[in-house]
Every structure is written in C-alpha cells, then in structure tokens.
Design brief:
This protein has about 220 residues and is α/β, with parallel strands linked by helices. It has one domain: Alpha-Beta Barrel (TIM Barrel), CATH 3.20.20. It has ten helices and eight strands. The protein has an eight-stranded parallel β-sheet with strand order 7-6-5-4-3-2-1-8. The protein starts with a helix and ends in a 6-residue tail after the last helix.
C-alpha cells in the first residue's frame, strides 16, 4: 500500500480524531517524508540527532520535528535551534542542558517527561517518586527556557492487551494527579504521548493526545 492509502486507513481507525499523529520517519528517506508532507502531515518524529539534522536542512521549514529517542546531553545543542518537542526527558540533568542550549538560541523548548510504565528493563523513564521529586525541586523552577507540556510513556512490548491498557491507564492517572498539584510556572500539562503502530487504538481509548506511528505509515524501517 502507498503512504497515501496507509494514512487514510490510519485516520479511519482513529477512535479520537483530535489525537495528534506524529509520523515516525526515522530511517526513512526524505522522499517518503516529502510524500507524507504533501498529504498534510506536519509532525515528524526522529530518534537520531545526526539523521534529524540532515533531514531538517533539506525539508520544509514548517515541519514540527519531534525528538522521540533517548537524547544524550552532549547532542542537545545540535537540535536546540529548531526542535519542536522533545518527548523523552528522563532526568534533571538532561532538562538543565536543554534549558542551557535553548537560552543560547533564545528559544523556549517544549518537553515531555518520560515516565517508566513498562515491565521491561530496557525502557527509560522516571518512576512516580522520581517524577514527584523532579517537579517539586527548586532546580526545575529556575529553568526559564523549557516548558514541560506533558508526559510520555512506552508500554511493555507484548500481545497482552490488558497489560498495555493498564500501563497506559497508569500514566493517565499519574498525569491527572500531577495536574491537581501546584506546579512550577514552566509547566503547562496538556499532552500525553502514548501509543505506537501496535497499540495506538488502546492508547487513544486511555487518554493519549498524541501517537507516534511509523510502520503503519511508511512500512518497515529502511536501514542504510
């Protein structure tokens, strides 16, 4: 199937039409991204800094680039001038570096805090206690060039729908609890980034405001 057919099929199966589709374009060529762009997609997700830089230089400037991988602090400076949203912030150290690099280019960079909800050791993220400590820390309040706009999570890689649903529901519960608290001025919680090609329907049913979908749009990953 073509990218156009894939996108049409996806949109027809969204249980929440308001949920933002982030097209995960990592490993796919600029031509494929261009096709999706022509079909109206403006939000694209990448997980490698060098690949993202190369694509950003040659593709339309109104694309909203999402960094969805595990971001190393020494790579932040390369994407700070243009990145729209960083999905996986899992430490105060990384958040501080994003703030530092954003200040240098006179920007406020939007970020999501990554929460560990899966039953897998390979996943990154803050647990609920660490999240609470981060939110309440004096250090976070002083970061004037970042805006925390929500939470992000990755479910366990499993065929058990009830496991995935419970993990997504857990993140939504954490999000709702956080919203009831007195938050620092650089917090504006409105986004829950959960759901990928295999579980986006469950994610939308459990409160996702944005889903990260690659395979169902572009097909299997293309490795160089």
């Amino acid at each position: 199937m073509s990218i156009k057919e894939n996108l049409q099929l996806l949109k027809n199966t969204f249980v929440n039409p308001e949920c933002l589709l982030v097209a995960v374009s990592k490993t796919h060529p600029v031509e494929a991204i261009g096709q999706a762009y022509e079909l109206g997609i403006r939000d694209f997700g990448e997980n490698k800094v060098q690949e993202l830089e190369e694509k950003q230089q040659v593709l339309p400037k109104d694309i909203r680039w999402h960094f969805i991988g595990h971001l190393q602090t020494n790579k932040v400076k390369y994407i700070a001038p243009f990145i729209y949203l960083i999905h996986g912030v899992d430490s105060l150290k990384l958040l501080t570096e994003i703030n530092k690099q954003a200040e240098k280019v006179d920007r406020i960079i939007q970020c999501l805090l990554q929460v560990y909800i899966a039953k897998e050791e390979s996943k990154f993220g803050l647990d609920e206690k660490e999240l609470e400590e981060l939110v309440q820390s004096e250090a976070v309040k002083s970061l004037t060039h970042v805006k925390i706009v929500g939470l992000m999570g990755m479910a366990t890689f499993t065929d058990k729908e009830d496991v995935v649903r419970q993990e997504f529901r857990n993140l939504k519960s954490i999000f709702d609890k956080l919203k009831t608290k007195k938050l620092p001025p650089n917090f504006d919680l409105r986004e829950i980034s959960i759901g990928m090609t295999g579980d986006y329907t469950i994610a939308q049913e459990e409160g996702s405001t944005m889903v990260r979908i690659g395979t169902a749009i572009f097909g299997e990953r293309e490795y160089k």
